[in-house]
Amino acid sequence: MPIPASVRFYTYFPLLIPSIPCSIFILYHLLTNRTLRQALNNHVIILILILGLVYELTDVIWLMHYYRVGISLFQIPAFCLIWVFIDLGIFVTITILV
């Protein structure tokens, strides 16, 4: 039995709202504190946070729009290709970094 789109939307939405400020907060502290920024082990975490934030601000929001309305944000092939590239590219990159 598939999960309805409205349930998917209302599952993503409350989780996305605190996720974006938390990502920005952690990224801000990692980038502004010199000792944290220069630690070699934090470089991968900073990169994962940047990619995750881009993923949240693009792909997840576009997906939530699709779940809410039922159609993609822009119905042109170029947008769909960009969406697939961002979705797969960032997901695979984060998976490799982790």
UniProtKB/TrEMBL annotation:
Membrane-spanning parts: 12-31, 43-64, 76-97
Keywords, in A-Z order: Membrane, Transmembrane, Transmembrane helix
Domain of life: Eukaryota
Protein name per its UniProtKB record: Uncharacterized protein
Protein's organism: Adineta steineri
